[in-house]
Every structure is written in structure tokens, then in C-alpha cells.
Amino acid sequence: MPLFAALLLLLAPWQPPVDPEATAAPDLVEITALDPTIRLDIRYATPRNFLGRPVYSEARAFLQRPAAEALVRAHRRLKTEGYGIVVFDAYRPWSVTRLFWEATPDDKKHFVADPSKGSRHNRGCAVDVSLYDLRTGRLVQMPSEYDEMTPRAYPDYRGGPRRARRLRDLLRRAMEAEGFDVYEYEWWHFDYRGWRRYPVLDLPFSALP
Ligand SMILES: [Zn+2]
Q1: What is the rounded average pLDDT for all residues in the chain?
Q2: Which of 27, 65, 119, 184 is deepest in the core (most CB within 10 A)?
């Protein structure tokens, strides 16, 4: 490893940050236990992610209970339109956020969370989602790929096929109606309002029920 990279690693924080406002007790629940018709496509358990290698040993998805219940409600709301929710990522251990930060070039860092602050994924209150068609079972086309680090990923991007923008906006409305806010640079990323009450966690999936 070059000396400069080694120094950067030394400077990066080794411990998850402690937020004094995060006073709620963690209650991470497995999303598919609440509704098995929510689909999983956990990209970080596969090489199909921006790192090109798996970083999770298990393809599972957890959220804090109120966020998981809200996601189930959004999923059921979308059923009336002929779509279901597919989850790419939900709770993410803090050490994985740190790994993403180190692997991302400076000009793309607004697409990843700063480990010194922690991510809302680390609090179990953020979820990366898209839609699948209930008739065909296939993922729909959105204006960008998941984790694509370009302006096509912005939720207000106005290019690309009209149908893709319509489905992106349909997903956003269903999520907003259930208490989530979209991230300004990623159409797929939603934060559950109330995330601040939950601490940054670094529990591996294998430690969860
Ligand atoms: Zn995300």
C-alpha cells in the first residue's frame, strides 16, 4: 500500500460516531418477516455493485420497526397501481459505510455517507428501493441504474424515457405518503423521518434476530 493511502486509513475514524440525540432503543426487524411479498435484490451481497465484489455475507434487509412498517404500507399502496417494492439495501453496518467512503473518489463523495457522521442506513432508517411489475415480476426501468453516480440518479432529473420518470415519481409519492424523504442525489434512497432518534450501529447481520 502506498504511504499516502496508509496515512489516510490511519486518519479515518475507527469507531462509529455517538449521537447524543439518538435515545431510542434499536429494534431492527427483517423486512420480509413483515411482508414476504416485498422483494429483495441485495446488491451488496453480490458483485453487482459499485465495488464489484460482495460486502455482505448474507442477502438480508433490516429496518427499525416503525420504518419497516411504513415501508410495508408503501408497498401495499403501490399494489393498487400494479407494482411492488424491491429492496436493494436497508440497514447497513457502519464499517461498510467506512469501506464505501474509502473506495469512492473525492468528486463522487456526495453519493456516499461520511463515516465520521454515519449514515441513516447505519441507523436502520434508510432504505434503497425500486419497483417491480406485479404481472411480470421484473424490475421496472428507472431513469438510472441503482448506485449510478451521475445526474440521471437525481430524483428531479428530467431526461430519459417518460415512463421511467413516471415510475420514479410514483415510487417517491408512495414513500413520501408513508413518512419517507427522498435523498436529493438518488431517486432510490429514502430516509425515514425520525431517523435522528436511532443510534449509528455496527452490528453485523449475523448478530440480528
Ligand atoms: Zn441509500
Answers
A1: 93
A2: 119
- Report CA(92)–ligand 1 centroid distance (Å): 9
Question: Which three-class secondary structure state does DSSP give residue 39?
Answer: strand
* CA–centroid distance, residue 20 to ligand 1 (Å): 23
pLDDT tens digits along 18-45: 999 999 999 999 999 999 999 999 999 9
- Look up residue 139 and give its DSSP letter: B
The verdict on residue 14 lying in a domain is no
Dist CA 158 CA 19 (whole Å): 37
pTM of the full predicted structure?
0.91
Domain range spanning residue 60? 22-207
Does the pLDDT at position 10 exceed 60? Answer: no
Count the domains in the chain.
1
**Catalytically annotated residues:** 186
Bridge partners (DSSP) listed for residue 207 = none
- Residue 58 has a CB neighbour count (10 Å cut-off) of 12
